[in-house]
TrEMBL record:
Cofactor note: Binds 1 zinc ion.
Classification of source organism: Bacteria, Pseudomonadati, Pseudomonadota, Alphaproteobacteria, Sphingomonadales
NCBIfam families, per database record: rRNA maturation RNase YbeY
Family matches, as InterPro entries: MetalPrtase_cat_dom_sf_prd, YbeY, YbeY_CS
EC number: 3.1.-.-
Name of the protein in question: Endoribonuclease YbeY
Amino acids binding Zn(2+): H120, H124, H130
Subcellular location: Cytoplasm
Keywords (A to Z) from UniProt: Cytoplasm, Endonuclease, Hydrolase, Metal-binding, Nuclease, Ribosome biogenesis, rRNA processing, Zinc
Similarity remark: Belongs to the endoribonuclease YbeY family.
Cofactor(s) this protein cannot do without: Zn(2+)
SUPFAM superfamilies, per the entry: Metalloproteases ('zincins'), catalytic domain
Length: 163
């Protein structure tokens, strides 16, 4: 999977490398994400911008930590031939202030929380949804925990908070 990244309103850091590692881990636990044709845009931005996106596209008038905008149906993704032109998987946006606050509240490094949210967003793009049912939430959480373990990041759900 290729990541197209735009970093604005985040502190200095190697966010590109962090995102590449998170995407690689997600691809290891969800085979369909490993398709070389996939392209995902990733925006590191501010709460103000996330608030706008959430209001305009989700009719939720508040900031949030991560937004995902899938462009492929899960069945299309699963059956996507690895040969062919690039295929847009979707867009992910991360809000700096919310991510930083949540990381501090959880007592984890911002880099770990951002990695978790990128994995979480990629799973949404792959068709997973924790809001459908408890079983779907458990499946998604298990995949996240597995991907994060590949990054040497502990289980973010030990206190059962959902991103």
């Amino acid at each position: 999977m290729e990541l197209e990244m735009d970093i604005e309103d985040w502190p200095a850091g190697d966010w590109e490398a962090l995102a590449e590692r998170a995407a690689d881990a997600a691809s290891q636990v969800v085979e369909s994400l490993a398709n070389p044709r996939l392209v995902t845009s990733l925006l590191f931005t501010s709460d103000a911008r996330i608030h706008e996106l959430n209001r305009d596209w989700r009719q939720r008038d508040k900031p949030t930590n991560v937004l995902s905008f899938p462009m492929l149906e899960r069945t299309d993704l699963v059956h996507l031939d690895p040969d062919g032109p690039p295929e847009m998987l979707g867009d992910i946006a991360l809000a700096y202030e919310t991510c930083a606050r949540e990381a501090e509240e959880k007592g984890v490094p911002l880099e770990h929380h951002a990695s978790h949210l990128i994995v979480h967003g990629l799973l949404h793009l792959a068709g997973y949804d924790h809001e459908i049912s408890d079983a779907d939430a458990e499946e998604m959480e298990a995949l996240e925990v597995k991907a994060l373990a590949l990054l040497d990041i502990g289980n973010p759900y030990s206190d059962h908070e959902t991103p």
